[in-house]
Amino acid sequence: MVMNNKIGVIVDSFRVGVREGLQRAKMVGADGVQIYAVSGEMDPANLSAAQRKELKEYIASLGLEISALVGDLGGYGFQDKSVNAEKIEKSKRILDLAVELGTSVVTTHIGIVPEDRNSEIYQNMHDACEELASYATSMNAYFAIETGPEPSARLKEFLDGLGSKGVSVNFDPANMVMVTGDDPAQGVYNLKDYIVHTHAKDGIRLREVPAHYIYESLGYDAPVNEHNTFVPGEGQYFREVPLGEGSVNWTEYLKALEDIGYAGYLTIEREVGEDPEADISKAVQFLKQFRG
User: Fold this and answer.
1) Per residue in 145-157, pLDDT tens?
2) Where are the transmembrane segments (predicted)?
3) Is 157 exposed, middle or buried (0-12, 13-18, 19+ CB in 10 A)?
4) How far is the first Cα of the chain from the last one, in angstroms, to the nearest whole number?
5) What pLDDT score does 1 carry?
6) Quick check: 12 and 271 in contact, CB under 8 A?
7) 3-state secondary structure 193-248
């Protein structure tokens, strides 16, 4: 197996701001970048046409591409019908920005897909994603749901019911091993028709945990500890670790991506750690070893 995928980095993982993050992505040897576009300077509402043009030109001047934008609006994803209209509108504006900046992918979380297909929450999520899928398809683009909150087979069933691939998948192997216990390689085969972007992240599951303890879900609250704060998943139920040091079998995982013909980005995400730049730099080199 020889890995030919381009390597990306989420610039926000450097924790230094967009412009400096772009420069550091170039320094560590990435081919492209993913950028959060929900609030602050990258909020579509805060970027004029001239600013968008300048940003696109600046990224190109560094020899980088944009692999995707992050459009995760938090909360319960699209489980809560009362706020979905606002979230759908914001998601569309993020997709507009993505296309203008030269990428066709916006990654997002939609909430935990319920097991009960007849539940109100399932229907709320389906209706929202159906509208988003239609909009994305009209622009030859994708909203890509990040894997992790539910098993890959359940996510596939949900996607199969949308009628188009405008809502697809951002595959994160670490979320699977840390939360659902799914096998990432098998998950790739399950979701092969929908994967348009991936995150390169690694982790270890410390003990089994209900998904709603980690991901916000309408109708559920995470347990509280003696300090009356929500129990964090990191360090208690799972641990995110540098690439190659966790439970993701990278040889099997990358072989699965090769088998399904995935030719998109492997975008490094580092959400914890005291020296994210060092971890990201090592992650780039870790992935490059698979290029043969």
Assistant:
1) 999 999 999 999 9
2) none
3) middle
4) 8
5) 74
6) no
7) CCEEEEEECEEEECCCCCHHHHCCCCCCCCCECCCCCECCCECCCEEEECCCCCCC
DSSP 70: E
Helices and strands in the chain, H and E counts: 10, 10
In the block, tokens 């990278």 appear at 250
Please, which residues have CB within 8 angstroms of residue 49's CB and are 6 or more apart in sequence? none
Structural contact between residues 92 and 84, judged by C-beta atoms closer than 8 angstroms: no
Looking at the predicted structure, is the pLDDT value of residue 88 above 70?
A: yes
Give the other-Cβ count within 10 Å of 220's Cβ. 13
Q: Cα–Cα distance between 107 and 169 in angstroms, integer?
A: 8
C-alpha span between 248 and 118 (Å, rounded): 34
By 3-state DSSP, what share of the chain in percent is helix, strand and coil, each rounded to 5?
45, 15, 40
Ramachandran bin of 202, using left for φ above 0, alpha for ψ from -120 to 50, beta for the remaining angles: beta
